[in-house]
Structure formats: structure tokens, C-alpha cells
Design a protein that fits this description.
The structure is a single chain. The chain has a domain of about 70 residues: Translation Initiation Factor IF3, CATH 3.30.110.60. It has a four-stranded mixed β-sheet with strand order 1-2-4-3, sandwiched between helices. β1, α2 and β2 form a beta-alpha-beta unit. The longest helix has 13 residues. The chain is of the alpha+beta class.
Length: about 100
């Protein structure tokens, strides 16, 4: 996947502001069940929020990088304990990034 530009990230952050978390990372950390849950969410949405619970053993920025790598998505933002991820739908993209 190509790297997102600054204006793309800003645009996606604006779209993600009103989203509710779709997946949660708990005390087990970034494991197969979390990756599967995020994969299911990407089947229906191109932009998702993931909430890192207080018991998450992985540092929040590292968790964001791991989640992006394991789900073949782009890390848009880590804000507090929330991670915003984007993966373009190859067949029917719904989000049009700015030119």
C-alpha cells in the first residue's frame, strides 16, 4: 500500500472523528483474535478505530504500528488510547482521498 500524504491523513482524521471503536485490544495484546476482528471490520469499512484498553501490554504507538502491519493497512493516527487505521477497498473504494 502506498504511503499516505499529510493532506490524506488530515482528511481521514476528520472522517474518523465521529467513529466509534470497532475493535478492542485488551490484556492479551495484539493477537490473532484482534487481527481477525479488524479484518472483519475492514470487510465493511475502509476507516476504523481501535481502542487500546488500559491492560494492553504494548505501548500505544507500537501497538498502532503492529496493527497496521498485521492488517496490511495504513496507520492514520494514534490519539490517546485510540488508533485510526485505513485500508482502501480494492474493488469498491468508498472514501475518495483529496487529489
Amino acid at each position: 500500500m502506498s504511503e499516505l500524504r499529510g493532506r490524506d491523513r488530515r482528511y481521514l482524521r476528520g472522517l474518523g472523528h465521529g467513529l466509534e471503536p470497532t475493535a478492542f485490544v485488551g490484556k492479551e495484546g495484539v493477537g490473532p483474535s484482534v487481527v481477525a476482528s479488524i479484518g472483519e471490520a475492514f470487510a465493511h469499512h475502509e476507516l476504523i478505530k481501535v481502542r487500546l484498553e488500559r491492560g494492553c501490554p504494548v505501548e500505544r504507538k507500537e501497538a498502532g504500528r503492529q496493527l497496521a502491519a498485521l492488517t496490511q493497512s495504513e496507520l492514520v493516527q494514534v490519539l490517546g488510547r485510540t488508533v485510526l487505521l485505513y485500508r482502501r477497498d480494492p474493488e469498491q473504494p468508498r472514501i475518495q482521498l483529496p487529489n
